[in-house]
Amino acid sequence: MTLQITEWAVSPGYTPYEAAVRFMEERVAAIAAGEANELVWLLEHAPLYTAGTSAKPEDLLTPDRFPVHQTGRGGEYTYHGPGQRVAYVMLDLTKRGRDARKFVCNLEQWLIDSAAAYGVVAGRRDGRVGVWVDRAGGREDKIAAIGVRLRRWVSFHGIAFNLNPDLSHFSGITPCGISDPLFGVTSLHDLGHTVEMIDLDAALHLAFTDIFGSVRRVSAPELGDCNSSETPNP
C-alpha cells in the first residue's frame, strides 16, 4: 500500500485553541478528499481547559480559572498550557488500515518510546487512557494524554506530552474524570529531567517515524492575524 506524504510542522509561541481547531477541521476535510497531505502539527497553547464528548460538569472544579473550550474529541476534561507539547495528528487511516484500536495503541507506543528516550519507564494502564509512570507509595501519574476523533477515517486532535507545565493548573479539573488520589499527573521536569522543548520534539520525531513512517518538515500553518498570539495567564 502506498502512503501519501506525512508532513511535520512546529509552531512557535502560543497558538490560539479555536484557530487551531478551525484549521484542523479544514485540513481533515482536505485530507479525506485527497486534496492535502497528512500532517502532524506540534504546538503549545496558553492555559486552557478542554471538554471532550464525555466530560461531566462536576469535573470542572474551577470554571473561571482558565478559558474552557468544548471540543469534539473523545474523553473528558483536560488541560493544555505552556511547557506541554501538544501534537495534533491528522492521519488517513483509510491508507493505514481502518483499525481505530491499533491507531490508539500506536499513539500510546509513540509516547512510551518518547519518554524512554529520557530513561522514563512509562506504559499503558487498563481502563485509563494515556501513558502513565509508577511513583512511590503505589501512586501512578500520567505523563501524556491522548484524545482523538476520526472523521471519514481521518484522525484529528491527538496527544499532549508534559515537559514542564505548571502541574498546579491541573487542579482546576478532574483530569480525564479520574479522581482517585492515587492517580495524578507528572512531567519530565517533575521526574527530574531537565529537557528543552526542541529536544523533546526530536525524541517525538524519532519515535513517530519508527512507528508511523517517515515525515517531511514543512512550515507551520498560517492562521492569519491570530497566529501564535495568545499570552499565558498566571
Count of helical stretches: 3
Mean of all residue-level pLDDT scores: 91
Give the strand content.
25-35%
Query: Which segments are poorly predicted (pLDDT under 50) over 5 or more consecutive residues?
Result: none
Multimeric state: single chain
Shape: globular
Q: Rounded to an integer, what's the Rg over CA atoms?
A: 17 Å
Structural class: alpha/beta
**Helical fraction:** 10-25%
Largest sheet: 9 strands, mixed
Distance between the termini: 49 Å
Secondary-structure element series: EHEEEEEHEEEEEHE
Beta-strand segment tally: 12
Could you give a quick summary of the protein structure above?
The chain is of the alpha/beta class and 234 residues long.
What would you note in describing this structure?
This protein is of the alpha/beta class and 234 residues long. 21% of the residues lie in helices and 30% in strands. It has helices at residues 17-32, 100-116, 197-212, and strands at 6-14, 38-44, 48-51, 68-70, 77-80, 84-90, 123-125, 128-134, 140-151, 154-162, 183-185, 216-217. Strands 1, 2, 6, 7, 8, 9, 10, 11 and 12 form a nine-stranded mixed sheet that branches. A three-stranded mixed sheet has the order 4-3-5, with no helix packed on it. The radius of gyration is 17 Å and the shape is globular. The chain starts with 5 loop residues before the first strand and ends in a 17-residue tail after the last strand. The model has no long low-confidence stretch (mean pLDDT 91).
